[in-house]
Amino acid sequence: xxxxxxxxxxxxxxxxxxxxxxxxxxxxxxxxxxxxxxxxxxxxxxxxxxxxxxxxxxxxxxxxxxxxxxxxxxxxxxxxxxxxxxxxxxxxxxxxxxxxxxxxxxxxxxxxxxxxxxxxxxxxxxxxxxxxxxxxxxxxxxxxxxxxxxxxxxxxxxxxxxxxxxxxxxxxxx
Length: 174
Hints:
about 170 residues; alpha+beta; four-stranded antiparallel sheet
């Protein structure tokens, strides 16, 4: 794995850059302009991202928008980001892919662990304070896309979610 890029992403400026990119690309998938991010710290950007994605998903649900089409847009955007990170970081094996996932998610306030082969557990999720269950279901398309991009394919399916009252999120990746 490209350790230089990995360590750059591990830094505060790297986390801030990751959030700025994620915010811009997610806004594009929603078909709107992103909120202004200039001068914001990483924690401020993270909060803005959580509020923005929650607001846009609620609007889509309330407006009766085609949620499957939105899911596809969010998934494709995130898959492209995950693929780009894969090209930059060049993970050599599944263990390296997991390290990339853990880093990316740590930068956005999510503690994710591998429980068993193909099973992931989210023990802490910053977004659970902002998302209702139906919003989480819409936005999870981004998680599915990131995983598919970093791992070069595969399907992430959630079995449990914190937003649905569980202590943790559990997902299977095949």
